[in-house]
Specification:
0% strand; globular; 7 helices; 110 residues
């Protein structure tokens, strides 16, 4: 990632998942933090790829969808953001933040 080779890194991880899972433990929270760091560094394409990769690794984790939705909202991608918040809410009906953000998006014109 640091060397700007995120697509190759993600591809390699996918191809070698069985091998690296015996050695490395990828946690949802840690991957999210990398995504937020890239976003703060304005490395937006890479941040998006990290969040998408996290959703791929943890498809049942409501927080990964909530985090991705937050970034999409910041980027002005309202419809996609809303879908991600809805997915987060589906996985965790008690996610008040997702409902608030959905309501906020609904007040905006897209």
């Amino acid at each position: 990632i640091i060397q700007g080779r995120l697509p190759q890194t993600v591809s390699w991880l996918e191809q070698n998942r069985a091998d690296y899972e015996r050695i490395y433990v990828f946690e949802e929270f840690d991957i999210n933090q990398v995504g937020y760091k890239l976003f703060r560094l304005k490395r937006l394409d890479e941040a998006i790829q990290i969040f998408e990769f996290n959703m791929h690794l943890f498809p049942d984790a409501w927080n990964v969808y909530d985090s991705y939705a937050e970034i999409l909202l910041e980027l002005g991608e309202l419809q996609k953001s809303k879908r991600m918040y809805q997915k987060s809410l589906e996985l965790n009906p008690e996610n008040e933040n997702a409902q608030l953000k959905i309501n906020e998006i609904d007040t905006l014109k897209y």
